[in-house]
Amino acid sequence: MKRTLITLMAAAAILTGTAAFAQMKKPDKPYIVLVHGAFADATSWDGVAKILRKDGYHVIAAANPLRSVKGDGQYIGSLVEALKDPVVLVGHSYGGSVITEAANGHANVKALVYVAAFSPETGESAVELSGKFPGSTLGPTLSPPVPLADGGKDLYILQDKFPAQFAADVPVAQASLMAVAQRPVTEAALNEKSGQAGWKQIPSWHIYGSADKNIPPAAMAFMAKRAQARDTKVVSGASHVVMVSHPVEVAKMIEEAASAP
Fold first, then answer.
1. Exposed / middle / buried, residue 228 (Cβ in 10 Å: 0-12, 13-18, 19+)
2. How many CB atoms lie within 10 A of CB 2?
3. Given a cut of 50, is residue 236 above it in pLDDT?
4. CA 110 – CA 250 distance, rounded (Å)
5. Which of 24, 17, 73 is closest to 197 using CA atoms?
6. Under a CB-based contact definition with an 8 Å cutoff, are residues 111 and 57 in contact?
7. Backbone phi, psi, residue 202, to 5°
8. Phi-psi region of 154 (alpha: psi -120 to 50; beta: other; left: phi over 0)
9. For the residues of 219-243, what is the DSSP string, one character each?
10. How far apart are CA 144 and CA 158, in angstroms?
11. What are the two backbone dihedrals, phi and then psi, of residue 24, each rounded to the nearest 5 degrees?
12. Percent of the chain beyond pLDDT 70?
């Protein structure tokens, strides 16, 4: 009953936000829906959203539940469906798995943008992809899992390890606050196999940092090539939160995707 109430409240929040957009002038550009990943929150898109809004885009930085690939994908998919007009889905990290799932069955998704993100094939998990190539140092920085009432486990990055692991090119004071505000992901979500790969039908763009310690850059290069990305950009020296440290480059790629035919 409690879970049903939470689901209804979440749906109401989506509809309320959508109604607010509906009262605005119909956009002549696609909606940009930004989906954060594990150990982050929607504010990680602030720098990118500021640029996109200045350039005339309607932007929604969605609250990713971080509970399961399928469930999170359905949640974001509900928002996409409610918007009706063309949408560019942008995912960071685990959020890439979510937008891959969310795009399916929604003809108004015109592009997928992967920002230091997973773009899984059907049947692949985030854990599998991050371990496909050497380079990830995430495991040793995680705190002991937090047991959940449903039998699952929540994962966090240890706060003192967070700046170097997650946001090495962000000022330490800012990265330390990000560590405090990080949102946990379930262990099950990172191990869950992905459904149908949306990037097989929808064009994709990929951007990531060369110094990413969460997802090996080699893994992201592999995924971008496999998806036959329209464009791929590697930001030299950028950490896993490339959208925080290099919002201009990330916003530029999103706008490239939004304006593509």
1. exposed
2. 7
3. yes
4. 18
5. 73
6. no
7. -120, 130
8. beta
9. HHHHHHHHTT-SEEEEETT--S-HH
10. 9
11. -85, 165
12. 90
The answer to whether the CB of 164 falls within 8 A of the CB of 140 is: no
pLDDT at 211: 98
Give the pLDDT confidence of 40-67 residue by residue, as tens digits: 999 999 999 999 999 999 999 999 999 9
* Total count of residues recorded for the chain: 261
Distance CA 254, CA 17 (A): 22
* CA–CA separation, 102 and 72 (whole Å): 8
Compute the distance between CA of residue 259 and CA of residue 214 in angstroms, rounded to an integer: 30
Question: What domains can be seen in the chain, in order of their start residue?
Answer: 30-259 (3.40.50.1820)
**Sign of the torsion formed by the C-alpha atoms of 244, 250, 255 and 257:** negative
Distances (CA, A) of 13 to 46, 62, 103, 111: 20, 11, 20, 25
pLDDT tens digits along 173-203: 999 999 999 999 999 999 999 999 999 999 9
Summarize pLDDT for 147-171 with one digit per residue, the tens.
Answer: 999 999 999 999 999 999 999 999 9
Tokens 């869950």 sit at which residue?
Answer: 192
